Amino acid sequence: MHRPSRRHVVTATALVAATAAAVAVTTAAGASDTKQQAQHAIKGGKAKNVILLIGDGMGDSEITLARDYVAGANGRLNMDGFPLTGAYTTYAVHADGTPDYVTDSAASGSGWATGRKTVNGRISKTPDTDKAIPTILELAQKNGYATGSVTTAELTDATPAVLASHATDRSCQGPGDMAKCPTDTLAKGGPGSIAEQSVNHKVDVLLGGGKQRFDQKVTDGTYKGLTVTEQARKLGYQVVTDNAGLKDVKAGKPVLGLFAPGNVPTEWTGKPAARGGTDPQRCVTSNANRPAATPTLADSATKAIELLEAKQKHAKQGFFLQIEGASIDKQDHAADPCGQIGETAAFDRAVKVARDYAAKHPDTLVVTTADHGHTSQIVPLEATPPGLSSTLVTNEGQQLKVNYSTNTPGQSQEHTGTQVRIAAQGPQAYRVLGVTNQTDLFTTIRSALGLK
């Protein structure tokens, strides 16, 4: 008689326990997943669609800070409702393959985009030989899937860039920004800047900031003398710059949405952290520097899903969509707690859009995670941090102190090397359980979509 190995017994027991836990969490949290959907997630299955949500710099501290302020200490955000939750490690590597314990967004994004670790600053290229590595978006396109990328950063920033471009350095965003990527230039037979590559890839939906990059003129090749925006139009893109334009675009032709010259302005404002702290403050849930016509991340996510679904209406394959809340990270760098919390809340509303869609389309894998941790820490009110801090008055009417001390005051605050949360629902979602590696997310998505 065959006896199962201890490893198989443990694995089976873990899966049964995970199924029970998933169902219990779903029921308790009132999440959209049914018991059957949660069990299906454990068993595996194939996804028609994948929606990947990236909170840039959104470590556990950033999630907790937003939860405490917006929903309350015992409240829950939309991202807290996923039935299956794990953690993954985020380290980059040096050129010789040894670990670089604190990653940047280029190396971390390249990790899930390609399944390979690389050096900080590099976009979907090998760490040693600087060769392009196929990305999950490229594989999805080759297998007949519609594709999209939505961000609140410039569309040429690291996290969106890793999907549809290959660059020696993340700074090579437009044709005029190629100083650190001499072999990537069109003149040297390379693929060009990140902006040029993104539209050349004919990604179906590109929505974010970075108009200044696309307004740069192409220096060589077929589109020499044209701006990248004009190149996009030549390639069939509908180009829009505000929410009204976004609402009017039609499915069937690719869409390039450029909603700001640089990064999309934050939704909230407030006093940045300071030496010795700030007086207790409430965040201002508006931004005078954000044009009223700017779509929210949830608006862009909703439209992207609508366009991608419409394109694939009669196709066997569905779509792959990445949605990034980019300025959680950027406001963490700036030690601006209100800007950071507002961007986390905006990202969380986009999570709700994705989960609401998946509730009606259970063959959709939804994953939410971060690319790396960051600096903000909740500390006791009586603490006297050596760096920058701010005291907030939460929606519960309580005071909360947040500290930023990963760099000298006056310098940009830094990423941290901590593991970060990854949570999921839908086919193959069980793969996020436990502690995994950031590169495993590539395999999860590839397996879910059955990409060859």
TrEMBL record:
The keyword Coiled coil does not apply. Zn(2+) binds at residues 56, 329, 333, 371-372, 415. Pfam families: Alk_phosphatase. Mg(2+) binds at residues 56, 157, 159, 324. Its cofactor is Mg(2+); Zn(2+). InterPro entries: Alkaline_phosphatase, Alkaline_phosphatase_core_sf, TAT_signal. It comes from the Bacteria. Keywords: Disulfide bond, Magnesium, Metal-binding, Phosphoprotein, Zinc. The keyword Signal does not apply. Disulfide bonds join 172-181. GO terms for molecular function: alkaline phosphatase activity; metal ion binding. Binds 1 Mg(2+) ion. Binds 2 Zn(2+) ions. The active site is at 105 (phosphoserine intermediate). Belongs to the alkaline phosphatase family. This is Alkaline phosphatase.
